[in-house]
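hey
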């Protein structure tokens, strides 16, 4: 029984470690919208912190019970597991504290039709940017996302798509007037039969 707990704790620690390092948020699932997946990922951070902490506790109690053969291989594996668990607990704790103090980035997601924009680093130390993308949602709720452009932060920015163009209105600091920026959409479409949609899907994958 104790051996199975050790293996279960090891699987949890390794799986969450791999997920944190190599897999996109929410296991790479693209469902509903970019904003929804981001919000879901913020809740999963708390869940992962709890699960990893419990797995680490189980690992410690199992080794303390001395029912695991104390071979050199087991000691090395256990040391590696504690290292991975410790890194995760520190990183996840810092992330959770950040969410509590600063809040999530969900308000910085905007969508108009199929155009999605995420504004990053708002109020941070570095420069802020608008990341525009084209989102197509299928009948099952899963979506394809194709990046369009990344531009510097614009004040009082609004946007919409018209005549295969992304039209952005914003306030220009230098001229102190409203300005318009045009970005071509290169035929992006959500129609399943169109070549553009197939190109969009292949880029998103």
């Amino acid at each position: 029984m104790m051996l199975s707990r050790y293996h279960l704790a090891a699987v949890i620690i390794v799986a969450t470690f791999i997920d944190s390092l190599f897999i996109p948020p929410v296991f790479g699932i693209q469902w509903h919208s970019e904003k929804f997946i981001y919000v879901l990922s913020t809740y999963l951070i708390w869940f992962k912190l709890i699960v990893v902490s419990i797995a680490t506790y189980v690992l410690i109690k199992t080794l303390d019970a001395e029912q695991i053969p104390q071979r050199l291989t087991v000691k090395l594996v256990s040391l590696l597991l504690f290292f991975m668990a410790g890194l995760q607990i520190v990183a996840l704790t810092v992330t959770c504290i950040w969410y509590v103090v600063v809040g999530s980035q969900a308000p910085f997601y905007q969508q108009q039709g199929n155009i999605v924009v995420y504004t990053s680093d708002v109020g941070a130390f570095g420069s802020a940017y608008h990341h525009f993308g084209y989102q197509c949602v299928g009948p099952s709720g899963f979506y394809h996302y194709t990046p369009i452009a990344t531009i510097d932060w614009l004040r009082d920015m609004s946007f919409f798509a018209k005549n295969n163009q992304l039209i952005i209105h914003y306030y220009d600091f230098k001229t102190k007037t409203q300005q318009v920026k045009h970005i071509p959409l290169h035929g992006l479409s959500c129609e399943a039969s169109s070549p553009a949609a197939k190109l969009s899907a292949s880029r998103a994958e």
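The first helix runs from residue 2 to 22. The longest strand covers residues 143-152.
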